Amino acid sequence: MNTTITEPDARENDAVAEISIEQKETEGLSQGQIVRRRFFRHRGALISMIVLAFIIILAFTSVGVDLWGLRIPGWWMWRWDQIAPKINNGVPTLSLFPPTFGEHPFGQDEVGRDIFAVVMRGAQQSIMVMVIAGFVATVIGVVIGAIAGYYGKVTDSILMRFTDIVITIPLIVIGAVLGNTFGSLGAAVLGVVIGLFAWTTMSRLVRGEFLSLREREFVDAARVSGARDRRIIFRHILPNAIGVIVVNATLLMAGAILLESALSFLGFGVQSPDTSLGKIVSDNQAAFSTRPWIFWWPGIFIIAIALCVNFIGDGLRDAFDPRQKKMPSERAMRRAGRAGGPVGPILDTTEPTQARSVDVGIETAYTGDVVNYHDPRPEEPGDVQDQPLNPER
Predict the structure, then answer these.
(1) Which of 33, 95, 239, 354 lies at a C-alpha separation of 20 to 30 Å from 41?
(2) pLDDT grade, residue 94 (50/70/90)?
(3) How many helices and strands (H and E) does the chain possess?
(4) pLDDT digits (tens, 9 = 90+) for 30-48
(5) What is the mean pLDDT of residues 89-100?
(6) What number of CA atoms fall less than 13 Å from residue 313's CA on the CB side?
(7) Total domains, the chain
């Protein structure tokens, strides 16, 4: 039996330690638990989720909810449509040193409306548009992309050509035309209108995933077992494409709130007497030089909401992508190496019958073990010394 001893280098020890760390972290966990653990390790996504939750809770509890006749009061003393007596000439009463909140922390506009209440109402409407538009666009995009990717051929060609037609029309133009018509009906209707034309990217991504997944073995097994196409699409293929769908849905939501703010700023979004973050900036653009705080707060909330949604989408992308691995620190790798014991020499025990060999007389030369070897027979006239063995001799 042939035995070859190979001493592992430092890179092999690091690779073994890294594999052992990854195996210990995911041992006994389901796919959902692994995704959740990866997401909560993404600090940017976790902080963004906390900040976004704080903004949503603050917006919907401070001034209450007023939707389709349903009115729930909030804990803040002023309403967004209430005119209050001016205090401190409308300058914000919020102060950090010393920390004071005051009656009008974000200030007042020219007529005396509390900017904090107005911004909270605008955040409510913008968040509502964002969520509804993202949901509608995701549903339409997933359905069209799934059908096109699964059936292919003529169905795929018709649906994708329709998608190309919708893509060629600028979304801001469609939103301006439809927003001017339906904006007076409220933020919910505006969100539906935006979602009806923002699904094109989602459909293309889902189509690509379905084209790849429909050729997998589990789909063939489902067909053989007699499963219908609807069950194969929504119960077998769709769960395997959920990562792409969730990530793109967050990007759609971030784009929807920016589009709504742009439309409202141009006057084609949410109409009076209601308001939104973009409309607050549009209504008070003449007071930029005298009351700049009216622009600071809605702008800060627009940027904060869009950034939080984008960071959450980035964290979801890393969590659902199996190729994304967190590199362990040197201390963790040394600890894993000590826990598993030192990596000893690697023994290569190859049976002679399995190795490539050449019979020379009564001796055997193993070509897999020896790199340079010589003919053990006595030299014959004309032989050149140090010439490698010719197996045909």
Answers:
(1) 239
(2) confident
(3) 14, 8
(4) 777 888 888 888 889 999 9
(5) 78
(6) 19
(7) 2
Return the structure tokens found at 370: 């020896």
> pLDDT band at residue 93, thresholds of 50, 70 and 90?
confident
Q: How far is CA 172 from the centre of its chain?
A: 24
Q: Which residues pair with 350 in a beta bridge?
A: 2
**137 plus 61 within the same structural domain:** yes
Q: How many residues are recorded in the chain?
A: 393
Q: State the residue range of the domain holding 381.
A: 351-393
Instruction: Give 2's DSSP letter.
Output: E
Residue with tokens 């997998």: 216
% of the chain at pLDDT higher than 70: 74
Q: Which of 174, 133, 129 is nearest to 279 (CA)?
A: 129
According to DSSP, the residues that pair with 264 across neighbouring strands are none
Average pLDDT (258-285) is 84
Angle at the Cα of 40 from the Cα atoms of 138 and 307, rounded to 5 degrees = 55
One DSSP character per residue, 253-307 reads HHHHHHHHHHHHHHTSSSPTTS--HHHHHHHTGGGTTT-THHHHHHHHHHHHHHH
Last residue of a domain, one of 299, 320, 341: 320
Q: Which residue has the tokens 């030369």?
A: 365
- Of 123, 102, 105, 125, residue with least CA distance to 114: 105
Euclidean distance between CA atoms 375 and 251, whole angstroms: 71
Q: In the predicted model, is pLDDT for residue 293 greater than 50?
A: yes
Residue 310 pLDDT more than 50? yes
* Pairwise CA distance, residues 128 & 353, whole Å: 74
For 365, the 3-state DSSP assignment is strand
Calculate helix-pair angle for 115-151, 242-266, nearest 10 degrees.
140
Residue matched to tokens 């919708």: 166
Worst-scoring range by mean pLDDT, 159-163, 192-196, 288-292?
A: 288-292
Looking at the structure, tell me whether residues 282 and 147 fall in a common domain.
yes
| Shared domain check, 209 and 62 | yes
DSSP-assigned states of every residue in 156-171 = HHHHHHHHHHHHHS-H
Angle at 243 between CA 238 and CA 246, to 5 degrees: 95
For residue range 200-235, what is the model confidence (pLDDT) as tens digits? 999 999 999 999 898 888 898 988 988 898 899 988
